[in-house]
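Quick illustration, no need to memorize.
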Amino acid sequence: MKKLFGGINLTWKKLVVFSIFVGIYTAVMAMLPIAKDTSFNDLTVTFEVWIFFGIFIIMNSKSPKDSALKCFIFFLISQPLVYLVQDIIKQSNLFNTYYRFWFLWTIACLPMGFIGYYMKKDKWWGLLILIPMLLLTGEECAGYLSKTMFSFPRHLLTTIFCMSALIIYPLAIFNNKKIKITGVVISSIIIIALTIICIINPPVYSTDILFNGEKYKFDDNYKVYLTDNKYGELSIIYTRIT
């Protein structure tokens, strides 16, 4: 694992090839019907895998400037490809619709890549640099754990990936034993907290029932239930529109 986070000679040629591969792969997963609503499709919509790619590039860069430029170029190549490949194949307009959001993140890669490089210095403030990435990974993990609980085993691989990444990042990035332990403790607290939150607030599926295109009106005389309650529970919630 240490080799993956600092032991690879990440040349510009390798980076460009890697960027093209990731962009095309992500586009394929976005279009593949069998991948819809599975862990293989998740990198098309959320950050957890892209955080991993960013840390991988940072840890295998040779200087803060090298790290900033390589992070920037990686996202500058991979992200447009995700949309352009789909636009070409599906004759859609995803690039113009969605890329503006990702381009802002691509620009942000310059300062983030530069600052992120200082995690390699194995100092306490390196852990402070890592913490926002741990929190964002934890946030994504909470969403996918909730989805896994709702429709097991969908998104299970992404949930496992996020939890594993939270523990691996401090272990692989830092050599200082105290920093490692502190990082693992922080990650463990994040995992425990998001698990408790997901258990206390179990996921629900919310929908509006339509009849002839109009919302069906219920009153207190109606009861809803599933024939077999092992599949879950149903309830009607009344909302007042003001």
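The CA atoms of residues 27 and 86 lie 6 Å apart.
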